Amino acid sequence: MAPGAYDGLTARLVEHAGFPAVYLTGAGVSYSALGQPDLGLVSFAEMAERAGRVAQAVGIPVIADADTGYGGPLNVIRTVREYEQAGVAAIQLEDQALPKRCGHLARKSLVSAEEMCGKIEAACWARTNPDTVIIGRTDARDVEGLDAALDRARRYAAAGAELVFVEAPESADELARIAREFPGAAMANLVEGGKTPLLPVAQLQALGFRLVIFPNLLTRVMAKAALEALAALKLSGSSVELAARTLSFSELNRLLGLEDLLDLADRFSPKESHS
Q: Residue 45: enclosing H or E segment and its boundaries?
């Protein structure tokens, strides 16, 4: 299970809560960095930079959204190598055509299965770390139906993807069918308000899913809390009553490791002489 994060702070929150991995969400980066919806507006350079920030902030594995690989096979090769250098443990590639959009929005278009298989093969070839996991995502469920999506997913697995991700199944039965097709090698994406039913993680694991992500739960929770706090501040002109709803100054700094960093700074700072 991997909640989504979009920067160093949210990644630290995921790690602090005890999750075994964190998912770097392209949608979350678009929301937070650009103030824009998930319509493929975030660039390769922006995502690679954010991947490095997140990987440096935590000690748990980072699963990173790489959208379409940002171009053809050569772009995919560069994406994989840059993500690996950034510290990413698993890289997700999808088969949407440009301009791409959130998998739970309508009016998506796809590249051919042959083109996507070439990208996956390029990604596997590009790996310098054999433990880097390549995830093959298909958005065909919404465009061509579940049978076509499963066929694409089989081809992506044959091309080398260790995990397959059939985006936006629309029922528990569809989720169960995906898990049966790819036992121990399927990924589920739970988007609150999206097309996929929000089954409990334990149930998805029992079906055979290996990974379940919650890409933008934190984004929505934090945005709602922020709007409520700002409305209260505007109304009262004071943050006193809001203090109980926040981390204290010391709690936030403890979460961020302030004391360890101050100790490190002291270790290498000039010592006062007492002559």
A: helix 44-57
